Amino acid sequence: MATTSDRTPGVFAARDISALVSETTEEGHGLKRAVGATHLTAMGVGAIIGTGIFVVIGEGAGVAGPAVILSFVLAAVACTFSALSYAELASAVPVSGSAYTYTYATLGEVVAWIIGWDLILEYGVSVAGVAVGWGGNLNAFLDAAFGVSLPDAIAKSPEDGGVFNLPAVLIVLAITLLLVRGVTESARVNLVMVVVKLTVLTFFIVVALVNFGTGNFQPFAPSGVDGVTSAAAIIFFAYIGFDAVSTGSEEARNPGRELPVAIIGSLLICTFFYVLTAVGALGIASPDQMKDSDAPLSAALDKGAGMGWAAGILSFGALVAITSVVLVIMYGQTRIFFAMCRDGLLPQRLATVNQRYGTPAVLTIGLGLLIAALAALVPLSEIVKLVNIGTLFAFVLVNIGVIVLRRTRPDMPRPYRVPWSPVLPALGIVFAVYLMTDLPLTTWVRFVVWLVLGIVIYVAYGYRHSRMRRRAAERG
């Protein structure tokens, strides 16, 4: 039966959830349900633990001092509210697209387009930026382990004095081919990488605890509460990535049970490792020893524990950590793009699933080539800040979506429900908006320009080719 929104498909018309779910079984446009809770949780950990813990802990310690431990906890709490909302919507709407699809089902097509367009930028720039960081960490590892490094001409972008960033291109293309090969294979490779990087962090924690001292914990909070909250705003971005798990909704074997476990579980695992790592680092090095280092954990081992040889191990761990981030975030982008194409807001032919591999192969290859070019040549020092505002904007809409859907569809099956709604989703909105206000004006300007460009494309193409609108026209 047609819904009211299908009979009057204006720009704020919402998709019927049962129709969204039924489209996942269409021949040529449906993805294979082949991923379980363990691999989904590993995807969350893979997306979260990257350069954040290996780099941002130094920045946070420089702002908050030893109280950076509390900043890690505060940032985790801020993320938890949004994670709970993602978990509810992912279990209730087990369809690819993450925040884009949830918004389409709650706030309407034009808002869904805006968030989808935002996520395309967020994920694409994030992958390119992380790939550039991968190239830098490859050089750091080669230097620490073997005393060699790649020439600048093929290891840096033109902005940084090179010709093109070959390592960044190679890692993006390698991940692209893996994603084309299949979600099961990608999930298995990611699981191995997650085990490796958690092992490296465990190595750091054990070494730090063996050499632990309490001298660096005084004064504990030199900048007071303001220092703790300011550091939390920095550290918050070390937690970004759990939302990528929800992009695997359509490929989860039992999304109603497994997705909430994976989203919340990955956040808890990362928080556990982050706090222990922060405690261990401060037990062997002072905030001043870490704050100016590009590799604060290696600096802590070198200056605090006198174990300079361990820098190679930390560099290897960072390299593996970043590789898994590239894999999971790029996977997320392909699934969001896939959902938008299947809905007709972007060319629908790109939503064709390869029958041999069960993946949107053409779409994945196309995105991989674009991101590789971006990583090789485009200056990313400023545009990467768009990742932050894009993520927080998605958090706001997902929390709003939970509140709206509770009111408009109170009887809809929800395998997982956010407790104390709408209080916790409202807190998620407050935290996200607060952190957005801390971003520089130039970031807001670029964000608005990108959204305006998106609206132009929606008016010129998406509105007329919308699958919902075409079906309504066919019914007369």
UniProtKB/TrEMBL annotation:
<feature type="transmembrane region" description="Helical">
    <location>
        <begin position="99"/>
        <end position="116"/>
    </location>
</feature>
<keyword id="KW-0472">Membrane</keyword>
<dbReference type="GO" id="GO:0016020">
    <property type="term" value="C:membrane"/>
</dbReference>
<feature type="transmembrane region" description="Helical">
    <location>
        <begin position="418"/>
        <end position="437"/>
    </location>
</feature>
<keyword id="KW-0812">Transmembrane</keyword>
<feature type="transmembrane region" description="Helical">
    <location>
        <begin position="64"/>
        <end position="87"/>
    </location>
</feature>
<feature type="transmembrane region" description="Helical">
    <location>
        <begin position="220"/>
        <end position="240"/>
    </location>
</feature>
<dbReference type="Pfam" id="PF13520">
    <property type="entry name" value="AA_permease_2"/>
</dbReference>
<keyword id="KW-1133">Transmembrane helix</keyword>
<feature type="transmembrane region" description="Helical">
    <location>
        <begin position="443"/>
        <end position="461"/>
    </location>
</feature>
<feature type="transmembrane region" description="Helical">
    <location>
        <begin position="357"/>
        <end position="380"/>
    </location>
</feature>
<feature type="transmembrane region" description="Helical">
    <location>
        <begin position="162"/>
        <end position="180"/>
    </location>
</feature>
<feature type="transmembrane region" description="Helical">
    <location>
        <begin position="261"/>
        <end position="286"/>
    </location>
</feature>
<dbReference type="InterPro" id="IPR002293">
    <property type="entry name" value="AA/rel_permease1"/>
</dbReference>
<feature type="transmembrane region" description="Helical">
    <location>
        <begin position="306"/>
        <end position="332"/>
    </location>
</feature>
<feature type="transmembrane region" description="Helical">
    <location>
        <begin position="386"/>
        <end position="406"/>
    </location>
</feature>
<feature type="transmembrane region" description="Helical">
    <location>
        <begin position="123"/>
        <end position="142"/>
    </location>
</feature>
<dbReference type="GO" id="GO:0015171">
    <property type="term" value="F:amino acid transmembrane transporter activity"/>
</dbReference>
<protein>
    <submittedName>
        <fullName>Putative amino acid permease YhdG</fullName>
    </submittedName>
</protein>
<feature type="transmembrane region" description="Helical">
    <location>
        <begin position="37"/>
        <end position="57"/>
    </location>
</feature>
<feature type="transmembrane region" description="Helical">
    <location>
        <begin position="192"/>
        <end position="214"/>
    </location>
</feature>
